[in-house]
Design goal:
The protein is an alpha+beta fold. It folds into two domains: about 25-80 and about 355-420 and about 465-655, 3-Layer(aba) Sandwich (Collagenase (Catalytic Domain)); about 120-340, Neutral endopeptidase, domain 2 (Orthogonal Bundle). About 55% of the residues lie in helices and about 5% in strands. The protein has 28 helices and eleven strands. The protein has helices at about 45-55, 70-90, 95-110, 110-115, 125-130, 135-145, 185, 190-210, 215-235, 240, 255-260, 265-270, 285-290, 295, 300-315, 320-335, 345-355, 355-370, 370-395, 400-410, 435-450, 500-515, 540-555, 570-595, 605-615, 625-635, 640-645, 650-655, and strands at about 25-30, 30, 65-70, 155-160, 165-175, 250, 280, 415-420, 475, 480-485, 620. It has a four-stranded mixed β-sheet. It has a three-stranded mixed β-sheet with strand order 8-10-9, covered by helices on one side. Strand 9 (about 475) and strand 10 (about 480-485) form a beta hairpin. Residues about 1-25 have low confidence and may be disordered.
Amino acid sequence: MRLLKLLAVTLLITGVGLAQTTAPAGKTGGFDVTALDRSIDPCVDFYQFACGNWMKNNPLPADKARFGRFDELQERNYATLRAILEETAAKKTRNAVEQKVGDYYAACMDTKSIDALGTKPIQPLLRRVAAIKDRATLMDTAAWLHTQGVNVLFSFRPGPDLHNAQLMIANVGQGGYSLPDRDYYLKDDERSNDVRAKYAAHVQKMFELLGDKPEAAAASAKSVLKIETELARAAMDRTMLRDPKNRDHKMKLEELVAIAPNLQLTKYFEGTGAPKFSEVNVVSPSFFKSINPLLETIPVDDWKTYVRWHVLRSATPMLPDAFVQESFNFNGRFLNGQKELEARWKRCVRYTDGDLGEALGELYVAKTFGPDGKERTLKLVEAIEHAMGENLKTLEWMTEETKKASYEKLHALRNNIGYPNKWRDYSSVVVKRNDAFGNAQRAAVFETNRVMKKIGNSVDRSEWGMTPPTVNAYYRPSMNDINFPAGILQPPFFDKNADDAINFGGIGAVIGHELTHGFDDQGSKFASDGNFKNWWTEKDRAEFEKRTNCLVDQYGAYEPVPGVKLNGKLTLGENTSDNGGVRLAFMALQETLKNKPQEKLDGFTPEQRFFLGYAQIWCQNVAPERSRVLALTDPHSPGRFRVNGVVVNSPDFQKAFGCKAGQPMAAENACRVW
């Protein structure tokens, strides 16, 4: 749920670009010359050239399964948020916002009280589960747990109508399992079998910590795995879910009820407190058809065990340390290769941001960003958008008819910078200094109620999907907007002391990336008004897919760990956006550099520094275990391939570094979509 950071005090833009600066060798703004591995020819392995010494000098910290320059930024961000929260928690005089975030954080950090309470805070939920006696009470309890932030069986949330993006409608979809992906339950290879065995042992241990005898806990773990496997078997794989047409199944409520009568969905929806609705988008009708008979064939006692597990699993962060450590042993150490659990304060910063994000964000922005940051960032965004318009003119494969629609979509794009114009009101959320679990639960109830009220109402285009401190950015097809939280607007992405080339290679490429998402394999299926509809000629769509298939094949050949290849279809949107974003940012840089004297800095031309600036935002080290998980679940390629996969397709890169035909970073048949 997060990705980008600091601005106001760091952004000094002159016009569209930044003043050129002369800096000493070493770390200059977002670029670190000491990170280079000069023993490598950049035309042979550019990522290794740009990041080799960084990787050598920054081994994985014990509390990380993946660590890169992104994470360096996140760590600095955590430190900033920690200072805010500790100061707020200690203040004697506080406003309502300060009280909530300060006491939430303080309660989370009070492990002595958490350990003393044991499992007492979750007993009301467990008693509700224990009272389940048949299918009717099972679904009643599932609905109630949904309001408490515990989702079982399937997902239920509002979302924009795919064919009327101005309206929020009810959406139901697959879900209900705990492992990172359905394939962990279904594959029969050695690693998957080992994961399932370790998962069952983990569930057993958690039940034992709850007080169950070993034999009963083992039987319960078996029931959980059995039910979650059936849910996974019914689910659509995540590559298919990428295609909007596979998520587009709007139907009358009674039609959905008829598909899965055993789920008693009319009563379920009422139990969640959702407003009455007559239409619902069913992301995967086959999922509901498949799980419907499970309510009859699987004994109620097994369902009770399954639901009990999900209550325990969701509550773990605010339970005694024994539960936290056991969860880490499986999810962190075994599944992802992380050696040590993160410090408690980092986790509590993250939980506070997750549950009271805009309250914490309000304090964060006041301290780090400032209102002038939006205007300064917008100039960079406008430069990239201008480059996109110019780039469209050069696309020989696209007809004028589709180009016209592309211009319309580009000009209709909305930009959200830094933080929302109106802060969320958390006044109804009760936060107590001695009630960590209760605070999290009440925040979950607040969020569920807030979100459910959207059903049947107009889409609020001003609402953000990320909190201001988030180190990330995103594009929303249904709203046709790009969003840059305050969190990303600092080194290595942006630095007021860096030259134009470095900043366009960093934040410029990120802006171009998000902009290109509007025209990737998913975004290109949504029109300028956010509706899911075709705005392409048949010929242009065929040409587009031919070019995206080139990227599918290119990235599908990469192996993050020996024997494990990337899923070129799963990562297609991000790879398209990486390639397009870098191209747009480079075009914007060239426009900015016009009629300016071009001097080398640190021995590199502006064009070379642009690509080095881009490469170094992706320097990282990753545990092999984590690489395996990400290859199966992450739509983003690993850092090495986000760099080499882009430059191998870039004539601008090859010209900048003098690469010759036949060298590894100069593709013979380069891929280009945008």
